[in-house]
Structures are given as structure tokens and as C-alpha cells.
Amino acid sequence: MSLTPFTVDDLDRLRDTLNDVMADGATPGGAIVCGTLDGQRSVLATGTVAPELGDTTPDKNTMYDVASLTKVLATWPLVGKAVTAGLLDLDQPVRDFLPAMSGETPSGEATVRQLITHTAGLRSATRLDLYRGAEAPLHELLCREPLEDVPGAHRYINRGYILLGLVLAHVHGQPLDVLAAEMWRELGMTDTVYGPVGRGPNVAPTEERIPGVPRIWGAVHDDNAALLGGVAGHAGVFSTPRDLARFGEALLTAHQAGGEDALGMWLRASLVPQASIEPGLERGLSWIVAAGGQVAYHHGWTGTSLYLAPEAGRYLVIATNAVYYGPARSRIAPLRALALKTISAV
């Protein structure tokens, strides 16, 4: 493999753009890690972890609520391991991998592939608080829900990954956080955990929901994940820029090994487009696939992102708590756009 390293100009542009979005009020600060398969890493950090922590600057050890990066840090690799072990079949209905249910389960007929590619046609709005007081277990309540769209079209939702988290726990007979912790240890990701985590200067706070009330800090920001005790297939994971870099390196290494590595085979399969999102972007298994299949990436609502360019042997991590100031997507968009452009320039 011929590695394509990040240039000094790449790093300067990323640093400047991070400073720009921070100056525009997008985030208190953040860290970017640019790395390659051979272990080269550059860490760019600026701003503060949060105003209430004074001049504490983010670094590679700052812990962030990674939000929907949970989908690729936990659920996606665990589904791959379960498929490899014969515990799951991508093209069988999800109800086949859950405790027995009676009656009609239209959402339970969605296949594992449809759930992991956001093409199942499930209801887009997920309000687990509406299930309070229900007698049936959560998996049955979710599977009984009617479909909202015809299966096949892409529509990004969390509900399918909540189901996948329940599936993984059932087929393994172990809680999702236990399964994930074992996998992360195998990958050398010693900082990555399901929350809650203790408050402190190394943990980035997120949103203040009610003025005058302490903001969320060390607990999961996502409401549905919070109702699940902080452990869910779609959100709930906390990690550091250093561990996200370790994950990126592990995926690149596995990809290089190809058919000799189960994770590498799963990643290669996951880069095959499954559904169109918009011109130039397609959904693989979990990942968004861009640049003609040369780049895969995923975002987290709180202001995190992970980009891979497997053939070029490089990755890029964005770790911010941009949701600190409210919805983060539009405010942090310039940094994410530059990151995609940079990782795609191979």
C-alpha cells in the first residue's frame, strides 16, 4: 500500500477552520487527529473544554460524548462479529433474533441489513418516553410499530439501531456494554466506554437544557439512550480523540489484511453501497460512502466525526462538544466539509 500522508497545508487549513468555527460560536473548542496506517499522528487542539473549566484546553485525552459515532464504534463491529460467528444473518428478519413475540410485528419483518443501512422504512421519530408504563418489553413494542415508508429507500433514523442493540444483547446473552467493552479492549481502546462517566476537566460537558440548571456533563446527551440507562445501539458511548484514532488505525490495519482478517472483510463489505443518500453519497453498512467508494465516514450529533480512506491508509477524527451551544450540525458544517475534502484528496 502506498500511503498518502497529510500535508502541512492540510493541517494548517484544518486548524484554521476549527478556529474559525469556534470564533463563530460553533463550539468551545475541540481536537482533530489526522493519522496514517503506519502510526503517524498529528493532533490539532484549540479553545477550551468548556467555559466553566476556564483555560483547560482539549487534548487527545479529553473525553467526549460521541453520540451517533456509537453506531460505528459499537453496533457496526459487533454486528459484523455476530454475522461472522453465524449468530446473525443480514437478510433475515430482525424478529428472528429477538425473544419470541406474538401477533403482528410489521417493523420486526425488517431485515438486519435494512436496519443497519437505514432502509427499513421504520418510523423516523423515536420517542421511547411514550412507552412508559407499557407491559410488553421494548423489543416487542418497537417491532409492533407500523412502517412509515416502503422498505428500500434511505432515511436516517435511530430506531433501527436501538433494535440492533437489543438483538446483539439477546443473541450473545450479554449486555451490550459488556460486549462492547470486551471488543474495545481487544482493539486497545482503553478510554472508550458507555456512560455515565465522572465529571471533571477531562470530560467535555454538552447541553444546558433549561436555563439556570446544570448542563449535561458525563451523562449521555441523547434522550432515548438516557431512558435505556445510557447503553443503546445508537448512542451512549464516550471516547477520546486518542481512542478514536486507535479505532481508525485498527480499521485501516484490518482493511490492509483483507481476507485474512474478519474485521477487514467486514469493513470491505461495509464499503459496498447499499442505498443512495444524495448525489455522490451512498450508505454502506452503517458508514456513509463517498468519493467513489474511497472514503467512509460517520458523524455524531454532539459534534464528532470519523473519516476513513482505507486505500490511502489514512483517517481523520473530529472531537468537539459543539452541542454545548445548541444544535450543532449547521455550525460545525464548514469543518466537516473541509475534513471530507481533505480525506478525499488522494
Gyration radius, in Å: 19 Å
The CATH superfamily of the largest domain turns out to be DD-peptidase/beta-lactamase superfamily
- Poorly predicted runs of 5 or more residues: none
Largest beta-sheet details: 8 strands, antiparallel
**What's the average pLDDT?**
96
Enumerate how many helices there are, as a single number: 10
Q: Main sheet: which strands, in order across?
A: 2-1-11-10-9-8-7-6
CATH topology of the largest domain: Beta-lactamase
CATH class of the largest domain: Alpha Beta
CATH architecture of the largest domain: 3-Layer(aba) Sandwich
Fraction of residues in helix: 25-40%
Number of domains: 2
In terms of quaternary structure, the protein is single chain
Helix-strand category: alpha+beta
Instruction: Report the β-strand fraction as a percent range.
Output: 5-15%
First-to-last CA distance: 13 Å
Q: What is the 3D shape? A: globular
Order of helices and strands: HEEEHHHHHEHEHHEEEEEEH
Describe, in plain words, how this protein is organized in 3D.
The chain is of the alpha+beta class. The chain has two domains: 8-69 and 190-220 and 237-344, DD-peptidase/beta-lactamase superfamily (Beta-lactamase, 3-Layer(aba) Sandwich), CATH 3.40.710; 75-177, Up-down Bundle (Methane Monooxygenase Hydroxylase, Chain G, domain 1), CATH 1.20.58. 33% of the residues lie in helices and 15% in strands. It contains ten helices and eleven strands. Strands 2-1-11-10-9-8-7-6 form an eight-stranded antiparallel β-sheet, sandwiched between helices. It has a three-stranded antiparallel β-sheet with strand order 3-5-4. Helix 1 runs antiparallel to helix 10 (329-344), helix 2 (70-84) packs across helix 5 and helix 8 (241-257) crosses helix 9. The longest helix has 17 residues, at 241-257. Pfam families: Beta-lactamase (PF00144). Keywords: Hydrolase. It comes from Streptomyces coffeae. InterPro entries: Beta-lactam-related, Beta-lactam/transpept-like, Diverse_Enzym_Activities.
